[in-house]
């Protein structure tokens, strides 16, 4: 017979904690149930089910029986309970045994890795314990899927390195090139790498490299006078570069993504000082100096709004723009700037500010991470917690962290209490799942509608 249990273990041996805070969606006549995981014990297959009954109660059912048991179970549920459906489900919780989560955690394929800082430099460590020690003066600057971009500096000479992780978690060198000492590099889509020589608010060059670090193109937006700030982003069609000169003039450069030809070059006279650029299919959202703007794929400035964002919290997906302001969470139509909906944080975050001045002065309630999730039926995942003002740092703990998922109408369709206290919270997205990495535990959530 089935039995209700408080916790169980996944096939990877990590505990499945109590599932909390499931918020009911549309009502069903049938019970909402879903297979979660399979574990072998004493040569018998135990199938785990999460059954969601009325009043949002969750039960973990361990099934040792065959098809007849499943039929009986469903009949009992249909007769006995009114059930409610849900849209998000905690699929499983996995302990990353060789990951400390004190550094950046990322995934490649089905495996997780950590960039860990040591006394003599950085290392890339897999969850299985494989360790790749970088040079003493080499550090990771960007990660995109299985590709890792690093920079080393030695004797006034800088070098850019490109590595790739294979399905066996082996890390191979793909390319290397010499760059300016103060150069800043990052990935664009399709394996392209972009590099600027900006250092201490001054730079002259912007360079593009292939997926083997072969230089393709080099430009100087302001010739010898140089620039003091540059921001960029790309989508499937174009690459947008915004460079600001010393006299605060911002130049727009638009490149064709396929061949890097310059499609448009113009000056933005609307005093846009770029601090952050986010891309989506029709164009780009630009934030800077309390101004949020939309530039389309032809390089046209379509709209601009004065909005103060305390931490540049911007996410854009499927023509919806999500912003965190001092007033709360706002969703706009990205192409028109019209407000779709807005929510104050106090309307959904239940915790009051803790009193912990000795351990963590200047604490505040704030967003920890925000990302759009699920390609079908765009939703927003937002983690709210309490930590020190300023940049989020693993040195400072995060208290009372809560995960929220919002639908297109701004309704909270899922909520989970993540931790009373943690140091690292990251969020990774895939097509139909997203993962919360909290310290050394990964929680995988899926969309079941």
Set down the secondary structure blueprint:
Blueprint: E1 4-5, E2 8-9, E3 15-16, E4 27-28, E5 32-41, E6 44-52, E7 58-63, H1 67-80, E8 83-84, E9 88-95, E10 104-108, E11 111-118, E12 121-126, E13 131-133, E14 138-144, E15 147-154, E16 157-165, E17 171-179, E18 184-187, E19 193-196, E20 206-209, E21 215-219, E22 229-234, E23 238-244, E24 250-256, E25 262-268, E26 276-280, E27 283-288, E28 291-296, E29 301-306, E30 314-317, E31 320-325, E32 328-333, E33 339-343, E34 363-373, E35 379-388, E36 398-406, E37 412-422, E38 425-429, E39 433-438, E40 441-447
Antiparallel strand pairs: 1-7, 2-3, 4-8, 5-6, 6-7, 9-40, 10-11, 11-12, 12-13, 14-15, 15-16, 16-17, 18-19, 19-20, 20-21, 22-23, 23-24, 24-25, 26-27, 27-28, 28-29, 30-31, 31-32, 32-33, 34-35, 35-36, 36-37, 38-39, 39-40
Q: Features of this protein?
A:
449 residues, disordered N terminus, four-stranded antiparallel sheet, mainly beta, 1 helix, 40 strands, single chain
Description:
The chain is mainly β and 449 residues long. It has a domain at 4-86. Helix content is 3%, strand content 55%. The protein contains one helix and 40 strands. The chain has a four-stranded antiparallel β-sheet with strand order 1-7-6-5, with no helix packed on it. A hairpin with a 2-residue loop joins strand 31 (320-325) and strand 32. The longest helix has 14 residues, at 67-80. The radius of gyration is 24 Å and the shape is globular. The model is unreliable at 1-64 and 80-85 (pLDDT under 50).
Q: Strand content of the residues, in percent?
A: over 45%
Class by alpha and beta content: mainly beta
Radius of gyration: 24 Å
Record the strand order, biggest sheet: 1-7-6-5
Q: How many strands appear in the DSSP assignment?
A: 40
Q: What is the mean pLDDT?
A: 78
Instruction: Give the CA-CA distance, first to last residue.
Output: 29 Å
Stretches with pLDDT under 50, minimum 5 residues: 1-64, 80-85
**Biggest sheet descriptor:** 4 strands, antiparallel
Instruction: Give the fraction of residues assigned to helices.
Output: under 10%
In quaternary terms, these chains amount to single chain
